[in-house]
Structure formats: structure tokens, C-alpha cells
Amino acid sequence: MASALLEWFDTNGRRYPFRETSDPYRILVSEMLLRQTTSRQVSAVYHPFFDSYSTINTLAHADGSEVLKIIKPLGIHNRAEGLVMMARQVLYSHQGEVPGTMDGLMALRGVGRYVASCVLSFGYGRWYPMVDSNIQRVLSRAIHGGDRPPSPKWAWSEYEIIGRDHSSRTLHSAIIDLSHIHCRPKRPLCNGCPLALACAHDRTQ
Ligand code: SF4
């Protein structure tokens, strides 16, 4: 399953600036911004944001209203103050270093298991499963058959089983892109999907 997906990604994968960095700070902020927004939207504010706040230190000393001016197009107005608070936490509790442990990351304001796993995988070179609602939908349809997984933990362990031997960043980006191009929430576009032959989803519905 993973091989067909990665082959497809080679020619169909999308390029975004947050996929090009291995800086834990940039990954942390980008993944926090990507919640409930689109990759394209976050790409549009990526350079303006990091041109203004290139380090955790500059973000920690920022005025939330100035941060908001940059991320306003994302429509997540309440996240500007949260980003500044998170940066202050990193500055004062971790000497300005983004934590490199699951516990340390998940203790940060606004950071859950998914964002923490992205930072550890892309920024610190560890391998962690990463499951958001898009990835959960793809795994659930392709392996289980239904739109929803049999249990909350199921998708995390399936991700680990299919992904362990592959680059965490490439696999993650490939599933995310598949979830937007083919395995869309309402009407999956199964024609041309690289998983079509093996997929368990009932496409007659
Ligand atoms: S074949 Fe259809 S349902 Fe299955 S993974 Fe591809 S797009 Fe999703």
C-alpha cells in the first residue's frame, strides 16, 4: 500500500515551504497554523511570518496584535496570542529550545499529540505516527472500509504498521496529498487513486 502511494506522490506531490524545513521552531508554528486551515493558506503567510519572527525569541517578545496582522487571512484570530504564549513558554521553561520529547511538547500551550509527533519526526529525525482527521479518513477507508475507524487508537497503530519502513515526512505528505486530491471527505475520487486496487472502501455507495 505504502509503495503505490509513494510512487504516486513522486509525481503528484505538492510542494509547500513548511515541507522544506527541518527547523523544529518552524515546524511547530506551521503545524499549529495548519489546524483548521489549508496548506495553501499557510504557505501564503509562511514567509511573512518567519521574516518577522525568525526565532522563538522574537516570537516570544512579539505583540499579539502584530502577529495577528500576519495570520489574519487564515481566519484563526484567537491563535495569535496563543502562539506568543507558547513561544514564551519555550523561552522561559526550555531556554528557547523547542522540546525534543513528546511530554515536553505536549505540555506546551496548544500542542497535542499530532503536532508534537510532526515536530519530533520532521524536526528531530524520529519516527512517530501522525494521524489527523484527513489521515484517519484515508486509513479508515483504505484498510477498514468505512469512513470512520473502528476505534480512536486504531488509525495510530495502522499508521505505524504501514509506515515504519518509510521516511516519516514523505509518507505523511503523501497521505495528506491523497486525502485532498483523491480521498476527499465527501466524494472520494477513486478513479486514478493509487490505492484503488487494494482499497477496502465500498465504492458502490
Ligand atoms: S480508492 Fe477511493 S476510498 Fe480508497 S483510498 Fe482511494 S480515493 Fe479513498
Can you walk through the features of this model?
It is a single chain. The chain has 205 residues and is mainly α. Helices cover 57% and strands 0% of the residues. The protein has eleven helices and no strands. The chain has helices spanning 2-12, 24-34, 39-52, 56-60, 64-71, 79-93, 102-106, 113-124, 133-144, 154-163, 168-181. The radius of gyration is 18 Å and the shape is globular. The two termini are 23 Å apart. The mean pLDDT is 94. Iron/sulfur cluster (SF4) binds next to α9. Residues 138, 141-142, 182-183, 188-190, 193, 195-196, 199, 201 line the site of iron/sulfur cluster.
Name some characteristics of this structure:
0% strand, binds iron/sulfur cluster, 205 residues, globular, mainly alpha
Question: What does the secondary structure layout of this molecule look like, with pairings?
Answer:
Layout: H1 2-12, H2 24-34, H3 39-52, H4 56-60, H5 64-71, H6 79-93, H7 102-106, H8 113-124, H9 133-144, H10 154-163, H11 168-181
Helix pairs in contact: 1-11, 2-3, 2-8, 5-6, 9-10, 9-11
The structure holds iron/sulfur cluster (SF4).
